Amino acid sequence: MRTRPSFERFDEEWARKAMERSPSPKGIDGYLGIRLESFEPGRLVASFPVTDEIVTMIGNIHGGCVTALVDHVLGVVMYPVMPPKSWAATTEFKVNLVAPVSSGVVRAEAEIVSMSARLAVVRVEVTNTFTKPDATEETTRLVALGQGTCTIVAPKG
Amino acid sequence: MRTRPSFERFDEEWARKAMERSPSPKGIDGYLGIRLESFEPGRLVASFPVTDEIVTMIGNIHGGCVTALVDHVLGVVMYPVMPPKSWAATTEFKVNLVAPVSSGVVRAEAEIVSMSARLAVVRVEVTNTFTKPDATEETTRLVALGQGTCTIVAPKG
Amino acid sequence: MRTRPSFERFDEEWARKAMERSPSPKGIDGYLGIRLESFEPGRLVASFPVTDEIVTMIGNIHGGCVTALVDHVLGVVMYPVMPPKSWAATTEFKVNLVAPVSSGVVRAEAEIVSMSARLAVVRVEVTNTFTKPDATEETTRLVALGQGTCTIVAPKG
Amino acid sequence: MRTRPSFERFDEEWARKAMERSPSPKGIDGYLGIRLESFEPGRLVASFPVTDEIVTMIGNIHGGCVTALVDHVLGVVMYPVMPPKSWAATTEFKVNLVAPVSSGVVRAEAEIVSMSARLAVVRVEVTNTFTKPDATEETTRLVALGQGTCTIVAPKG
Fold first, then answer.
1. Residues C66, D5, A95, D39: is their CA dihedral positive or negative?
2. Half-sphere exposure of residue B92: CA atoms within 13 angstroms, side-chain side
3. Total structural domains in chain A?
4. Domain span at residue C129?
5. B33 touches chain C (CB under 8 A)
6. Which residues in A lie closer than 8 A to residue B112 (C-beta atoms)?
7. Relative to the CA of D70, which of A39, A146, B9, D90 has its CA 20 to 30 Å away?
8. pLDDT single digits (tens) C90-113
9. Which residues of A touch B114 (CB under 8 A)?
10. Complex ipTM, two decimals?
11. CB contact D114 to B (< 8 Å)
12. pTM of the entire structure?
């Protein structure tokens, strides 16, 4: 039996602007080219393209690219559903890296699975969509699974 | 996009016997009265009743009861889908405890979300079904979320 | 460079009573016979004996016994150093299980490695001290490593 | 009682070359400027400088910079102590982020705390050394704590 939180608010305006402003012109999310693709209450999909810049000599991308994406969506998914002007601090997360990535697009889907006034638990699934050599159609496979805790910090005074 | 493993085998006989033999007459799973309720390929539901024995002075059960259930289902869900005579070692897991438990039934659902020849990632959701004071109907709420790694150990020789 | 928190208070009286009252007459900590052995500011050592009751047919103890001990020390280590009447909620933890246990004593050492007004991070190392067949001296080996987050809940009103 | 693995080999040549070649000219570790500072058997210290490029509008660095460093040292610490030509795959890790970073240097120390033929557990502590406004001396504080699992993959053939 799946039990999921219901959300009292969903700030579509915030979500729309955040999508428009992505990818960021600087910072690690800008370096990776993380683009916010879609928001729903308690959900966020975001992705980055696998460029030559991030592929290592071994032919795969560094795990740190995937974990930076996990960290990014863990926090950003919180904003449209928190009280206005609150701040989401990523307290901790855990990630399993289950397959390497060498081309295509890396996409994360974050879902808030538990939320109280102070804490939320977010789960993240990361997939890689790519075209295998000699193939004509794209393949999508799971590359990472995350679970983390966000602390909701109320605005001051 | 959800991507889940497909399973080459599902040993219904093993699953049926494991359910019949639960709860165990001894051990921590026997102490808690963990009952295996249902198996599907890559899924297991198991539960224990909240007895006076495990409720502390504060009125809640010890978090260790919930984490022992998480540990239990993480390993047991693997057996019907592994090659015969393999052994599933719980390498590590992470658990978020999101609500206290004081009565009713604690139920875990484990799902294998990634599986290779050597490693599997399992996610677990734990709920508590109970009747609130003065209520007539049962409530089910989320109490814990886990994610862990099992190592599949091949039989010797 | 190791940086560790300093603690403004250390309630020796609380620690002394908690040690005297352990093992608990009931609950999962009582079932395992968890004994609080020693407290220092930000540190706790606790153990349980490996009895026939908790050894499974395979000859090892259930991982849930070890994770229940981890959960126990994660919370209890907090009490002597928190403001009086606060409550420590184990928000989440992660544990690696690195070796099986079949006899002797299981001992955990918890250390508070970070602490703010609201959150603490605790690390736990679990060892097994036992005598190998045909050996005359005891061996101690690492069996589990944990890291978790406690939320410090202030007393009401 | 601390129990730590002993290491049968320590490839100083590998370590020396890896230090010389850091920071990488490309990739996420190159973007951050991660420099390998020192190796000992089972230990690695590495750092990156906090540049304007990685500081966000809020004035702090993205958590993904810290978690990318954790991911990096988790794998790299393994190479000098593994059998030659083995490969270390970061299977999973967990990280607690305990303080923000806005200037100075971010430094991680990785320690292999458990190691078998196939799996290792690595702990990481991340500190930030910086000069507070109006201060004359540097301060070092803890910013993150990690624990993860590496799978040791033997060379083919």
1. positive
2. 27
3. 1
4. 12-153
5. no
6. none
7. A39
8. 999 999 999 999 999 999 999 999
9. 96, 98, 142, 145
10. 0.95
11. no
12. 0.97
